Amino acid sequence: MKNKKSINIFKRAAFVILSAVMLSSFVPLLCAGAADVTINVYNWGEYIDQNLLTQFEEENPGIKVNYTTFDSNESMYSKIISGAANYDIVVPSDYMISKMINEDLLAELDFDNIPNYKYIGDVYKNLAFDPDNKYSVPYFWGTTVIMYNSKYVSEDDVKDKSVNLLWNEKYSGKILMFDNPRDAFGIALKKLGYSMNSSNPSEWDEAAEELKRQKPLVQAYVMDAIFDKMESEEAYIAPYYAGDALTISDENPDIKFYIPVDGSNMFFDSMCILKSSEHKTEAEKFINFMCDPQVSAVNSEEVGYATANTEALNYLDPELTENKLIYPESDFLKNYTEVFKNLPAPIQAVESQLWTNLKIESSTDGGETASGAGWIQIFCVVSLVLIVLFVILRGISNQRKKKLWRKPADGKKEVYRQL
């Protein structure tokens, strides 16, 4: 009996030891899984060489990149403040960076984790939207240009290199326009000879009238959809950003573009980390990777935008760096471009209301608005309301018609209507 008890004790001890050994063999695997971190990067569409994301993950085991895109500063900002998604890195433009700093949405960067920041040119530092270089690292910069298809647009109509081409009635129905208020109003303000950063409400009213006058000529208000529309020749004329214009012209050599002499926006897109980020150190590693001169050069070559990384210029094809539409001379930039500023709150309210009015109003000729998206939304809402009303009314009708049956003593059925 004693021997049997000893055997049972031995079996139990062996089981415990074996279980401990097996558990210990899984601990490294569990720890390795727990160590994996995913950083969420939110950037403009068509704005990175996707192969670089894979390269970063390979060079930084344990860090994964979840990469998603937006098509305007406004849509990016709206999604962030809505709390609909958690991002670590965002790539806003100048005026939006200033706005996000003022609203305490961005984290101060630890530049000890971003040593490659030294390769960013001094001319791209201490800019007005981040004067102390605390919150942002330059990604790309560029200007707004006017694109046109030389197969269909007369050279006589573009020889003055003006924004007036966007108002040329000869090309009605073949003109595209920015689907965001800052760029659209910026063009209209420059057309009138005003600053893109005007704080005069009456000048914004005038710009709104210009956009209303243009609206019957506009095929659609677009952002990323511009690639398909211009490359396929569905549209002939459009304003957009220089780097994307270069990409589109590579796909369709008939597409030409110019920087308007009326004045253009010079923009800076920079990498920032949200204050809500749970992986700030890993996010800074990603920013440092993107600032590596060779990585920056590969990225610039792919997307066609001007890099702020002066060391990267040594690795780029001279055909790109010598293109004056991508890298304009400093005197030209000084005389013909303007950087967006974060507008005062009252002017932001004016801009928002005027833009809303423009998008929902019918064209001046009584036809449909050029952007069908607004009408689709209205149709869906009206349809939903009608469906709900139909269901309610049908329910009331069925309730009135409902019948109660009972069997009286003689076995015959009598019907009673419920009143």
What does this protein structure show overall?
The chain has 419 residues and is of the alpha/beta class. Helix content is 43%, strand content 17%. It folds into three domains: 4-139 and 269-322, Periplasmic binding protein-like II (D-Maltodextrin-Binding Protein, domain 2, 3-Layer(aba) Sandwich); 142-266 and 343-364, Periplasmic binding protein-like II (D-Maltodextrin-Binding Protein, domain 2); 369-418, no CATH class. It is built from 14 helices and 13 strands. The strands form three sheets. Strands 1, 2, 3, 4, 7, 8, 9, 10 and 11 form a nine-stranded mixed β-sheet that branches. A two-stranded parallel sheet has the order 5-6. A two-stranded antiparallel ribbon has the order 12-13. The termini are far apart.
SSE topology:
Elements: H1 2-35, E1 37-44, H2 51-59, E2 63-70, H3 73-82, E3 89-90, H4 94-102, E4 137-149, E5 175-178, H5 181-191, H6 201-214, E6 218-222, H7 226-231, E7 237-241, H8 242-251, E8 255-258, E9 264-273, H9 280-290, H10 293-303, E10 306-307, H11 318-321, H12 330-336, E11 337-338, H13 345-360, H14 372-401, E12 403-406, E13 414-417
Parallel strand pairs: 1-2, 1-3, 5-6, 9-11
Antiparallel strand pairs: 3-9, 4-7, 4-8, 4-9, 4-10, 12-13
Helix pairs in contact: 5-6, 6-13
